[in-house]
Amino acid sequence: MSRLFTTASLTSGVALGLLAQAGAAHASSNMPQMDFSNPLNGSQVVWLVIILVVLYLILSRWALPGVGAVLATRSQRIQRDLDAAHAAKVEADAAVAELHAAIKSARDEANAEVARATEAAKAAAAEQAAALSARLDVQLEKAEAEIAAARHQALTAIRPIARETAALLMTRLTGQALDEAQLNQGIHDALAARGLA
Amino acid sequence: MAGPSIDALGQFRLTTGLGPIGHAVNFTNSNEMMLLSVGLIIVAFGLTLRTRALVPGRMQSLVETLYEFVHGMCVDTIGEEGRKFFPLVFTLFIFILLGNLLGLFPYFFAYTSGIVVTLAMAMFVFLFSTAVGFYIHGFKFLKFFVPAGVPGWMLPMLVPIEIISYLSRPVSLSVRLFANMTAGHVMLEVFAGFMILLTASLGVFGVVASIIPLGLNIALMGLELLVACLQAYVFAILTCLYLHDAVHMH
């Protein structure tokens, strides 16, 4: 640690001493750039002018226009590519719109077709149903008429059977014939009580 | 003074370059570096313009970035008229930028650290922008020194101030660049010289202690890279501003 300190202090001491020495050297010697008595100081400006003029001519006539042309070509190329991409995008958008329109019209057409078919089917079904119900009505009427006829027949047949049966029963039970009018009245009452008179 | 000493200013000493021919025409070591800069610029642009790739490589990207950076700076600062001045601003910018950056290499002469070089460029910018002002506006350009919306009794005070500030433009423009580059190179050389002196005078301890100036120099090199780019940018943007003043007078 102490050795490091010694080294550091020695270094800074020497550095300070050298700085002073260098400062003294500066003070004693003038800057070469300011030594205008040196003919080279003037002659370098003459050559500077010649070199700069040549450099200007090279740059302005050949180098800079060339690079400018390269840059212009590139920007034109980029612009052209951008334009092409833009046109392609517009085209693609149009195609997509066309596709959408086609899909929409096809769907509409299909929907109309389905609606038409449904209507036709409904109409046919309704027609069939009407025909069927008309036939059924006719059959029903016929059946009802038959039933009514059968019922009438049955009802007209039941009275003599009842009278003969009742007369036979009374004869067997009492051994004498029953008054015809009384028998008819009783049968009529019985039938009326059952709602068959 | 015994032993080695730090000659921090020797790096700025001009000598003649390119052998006896250069010696005969006083072609200096700073001019050699200028030629190197111009050569590098030509090579960079040559590579770019030889391929002219649609998707640029590294060198082409660098050149295009510099082009668009300076072009944007001209158009943003001067306006649409800036396109005319773009080659000029680009020439100054790339010349100063390469001078600053190449100067950071050891043994390379930093020509932007010479006051006569920076003053010559600054004087050119000053004279050129003034000429542009008079060319566009004629003698109305003198109204530039009369601030608008100022009460008349203040003008005798303000007009001289405006003129002095205008005339000081080339001085500040040149001294800013020269002083930044000179100070940076002096500091780099002083710290590097410390390392040599420490090693020479303290032996092993000196070698260990040299780590301090070495670390400082590494940090300083990063700072100098920033300064090199920043000062080239400052010179170019101020050139644009002066041209804007000349074109638009406000």
Structure overview:
The complex is a heterodimer of chains A (197) and B (250). Chain A has helices at 2-28, 39-174, 180-193. Chain A is mainly α and 197 residues long. Among the domains of chain A are: 2-86, no CATH class; 145-193, no CATH class. The longest helix of chain A is centred in the middle third of the chain and has 136 residues, at 39-174. Chain A is rod-shaped. The model of chain A is unreliable at 1-28 (pLDDT under 50). Chain B has one domain (29-248). Chain B is globular and about 70 Å long. Chains A and B meet through helix 1 and helix 2 of A and helix 2, helix 3, helix 4, helix 5 and helix 7 of B.
What brief labels describe this structure?
heterodimer, A: 197 residues, mainly alpha, 0% strand, rod-shaped, disordered N terminus, B: 250 residues, 8 helices, 75% helix, globular, proton-transporting ATPase activity, rotational mechanism (chain A), ATP synthase subunit b (chain A), ion transport (chain A), hydrogen ion transport (chain A)
Describe how the helices and strands are arranged.
The complex is a heterodimer of chains A (197) and B (250).
Chain A: H1 2-28, H2 39-174, H3 180-193
Helix pairs in contact in A: 2-3
Chain B: H1 19-24, H2 29-51, H3 58-78, H4 82-103, H5 115-137, H6 155-167, H7 169-209, H8 211-248
Helix pairs in contact in B: 2-4, 3-4, 3-8, 4-8, 5-7, 5-8, 7-8
